[in-house]
Amino acid sequence: MPELPTQYAPADVETRSYERWVSRGYFTADPGEASSAGVEPGGAEQSGAREPYSVVLPPPNVTGSLHIGHALDHSIQDALTRRARMRGHATLWLPGMDHAGIATQNVVERELAKEGLSRHDLGREAFVERVWQWKEESGGRILGQMKKLGDGVDWSRERFTMDPGLSKAVQTIFKRLFDDGLIYRAERIINWCPRCLTALSDIEVEHSEDEGELVSIRYGDGEAAIIVATTRAETMLGDTAVAVHPADERYRHLIGTEVELPLTGRMIPIVADEHVDPAFGTGAVKVTPAHDPNDFEIGRRHSLPSITVMDERGTITVHGPFLGLDRFEARPAVVAALRAEGRIVAEKRPYLHAVGHCSRCKTVVEPRLSLQWFVDVSPLAKAAGDAVRDGRTRIHPPELAKRYFDWVDDMHDWCISRQLWWGHRIPVWYGPDGEIVCVGPDEQPPAGYVQDPDVLDTWFSSGLWPFSTLGWPEKTADLAAFYPTSVLVTGYDILFFWVARMMMFGLYAMDGQPPFRVVALHGMVRDQYGKKMSKSFGNVVDPLDWIERYGADATRFTLLRGANPGSDVAISEEWAAGSRNFCNKIWNATRFALLNGANVAAPLPDSAELTASDRWILSRLASVTASVDAAYEEFEFAKVADLLYHFAWDEVCDWYVELAKIQIAAGHEHTKLVLGHVFDALLRLLHPLAPFVTEELWRALSGAESIMVAEWPTADATRIDAVAEAEIGAVQNLITEVRRFRSDQGLKPGQRVAARLDLEGTPLASHERAIRTLLRLDEPADSFAPTARLTVASVVVELDTVGAIDVAAERKRLEKDLATARKEAAQSEAKLGNEQFMAKAPDDVVAKVRARQTQALADIARLEAQLAALPAG
RNA sequence: GGGCGCUUAGCUCAGCGGUAGAGCACUCGCCUUACAAGCGAGGGGUCACUGGUUCGAACCCAGUAGCGCCCA
Is residue A379 reached through a cis peptide bond, with omega within 30 degrees of 0 on the bond before it? Predict the structure, then answer.
């Protein structure tokens, strides 16, 4: 057995343990051992069969790095999969990354810009080659972070969304959707980023309340004049109508007439449309079909022309004076020109309104009319909703399911083409005469055809993640064994976009089998004041920094200890230090057990051969084990961590270890077996939360290879022992009371005091030795002359404090206790005197109150007597 | 504008019908041979507000206020 230092040094053990786990293949899943039955996450029963338990890691963006939110997400998955392995499941935790089309391309373009180059200077092929180089570098950093965290992922199955196999999956499903008529090409208004120069889907647009302007403009003159309000005056150059509500009396006479569009001299019609809100502004709206999604719909209904007035960079392309101006320069210029003509009726500035921004670069998104590829999501979204409605997939916590339904039940068609170079190229080829051919993975395009230059949205490939990573479309052993996955662990922030997409594709590709049995959602990591972490605020925690300073176990434990289902996690430096202290506590307690010959090998004796202390801690262990299992079922990691923290520290360390010392000194050899058993179980229970420290200690304790392959403890109900729990509870109570007296009296902890205990006939009778030792009470000599007398639950303790006792302190104490007892007596008396209460409250509640009253009255009598007996002053 | 959630000790959060809890922070005393990253003791809360239901409400219901998130 190696000597353990008195302080746990995480850095010494973490790298070593991790490398050993990997080299021994503990993380590597074996589908051959998995039955196809599947198992509920958490697992209801410990089964003899190697039932599969599978989790796919939500793939981080290859171009980023792991932040503390990832650390939380990973800690949860690691805890679940480590426990599943210990429970005997054929366990897979599959890692990987996604190619993050826009983000990655942006990063590499920025690099190029430093060299004074653009991607066009390199050309598509060379640029993509360059992105792959960056991917290796950036991805490697993430892998290093995962190892530091201790992630027990199956590295042999690491995947990347651009891998050949996953690319084949993309092409396969594209072809299937295309052939089923669920992918189509159409000219629509899409979200366009004029900086990234690509289309975006709805979810890649972030809305914020921004300050803008609301300008009211008079179109036409005299009788025929009509006033419209807009936040985007520059788009008036592309107006092709004014719309009013058909029932709006103010404008009824104008419907069907034409009005002159200022600055342009064009005549545009006034049309009636149900979708105009008569209550908003003047009730008349300008219609710019090429630059607004709502206007586009109005245009379609009324067969209006679309006039595009900006190019892909947001530069005005029409009407002399404004030609070449950026859209934000054009806006004031257009307003000024209108004002010069006396057409500005009102201006409101600043005007708060919702503005969409590119989620990648924050540029204001421009609604743009363009030809793009779309997925018709209606049948897919319906299926995705139904799978949750009928319980094939459970969203946890269930309150969040509503958000999922809100999204999938009202989903717009999904724009999947991106004008980028980095990504999966759209597998559609165009013939010389406008023919369109979708090419499957094993097919060749006809000669002379040209492939669509665009690539697919990254979410298109990450939506396939739960099965493309397992080998789909091939019928692999992994797919058979591990799909559907047991649980998806992710933040509630991407519930609707990523999760919904995986649900849609999984159900579509896998014959109605959803990709997960459970979606377990966690919250965001926040700082100690509940504030969002942000670079500008300077409150960001780097997980690697914490791992270095407090250890990976402490970092993980801090996160898990705050992880209540679906709610945010607040963390701080001080709590990380607290977790480190806890690891150190476990370290030293186990060190104590080892130094005292804790024995794991031999079986535990029957209860009859054990002391009450032994039976008590084993009873507590059984309860705690059962509670931990129950908490895992509900993904209540905070509860798991809390249960084990308190059991380990308050019960095992503070009491059992102290009692065990006394038993060992008295020659109770079986204590070593109990110590061994308790620490063995405790370390195994803690292992999923704190893998490194538990591995190091457990190997020393057991002499076995690795705690990773040890069995998960089972709650032994036969060890539940109410008698022992009551007995030790009484011991704790007595000891605490006497310690309180000692503390009040200013007696130093180490100072020995003579005392007479009368424990005859009480449950404490067999614990006199422990009580005297823990309280440092000597046997009374013949000359014993007590100076103080305490009564604790009918046990009388007389002490000779050697010298005058602090009467004032004692009086204060007694008066405080007396006040508490009186309050208690008054409360219970009021209840017992209440006829309604006596008539309607359940018997056990009445009995409890009665017992409380009896106790309170006894306490009052005792305390009053003690106060009366105190010397004056 | 629509929807959801939150408000409990200084801070972060549990508790969700029957005596208000935890961690950290705070006060006092201790190097008591596993651990000072520790040990012992202690102080601290009209459970946002107003009504209602109930024998009994932090907990259930209604309303009010403040905060947060999502969607438009």
Answer: no
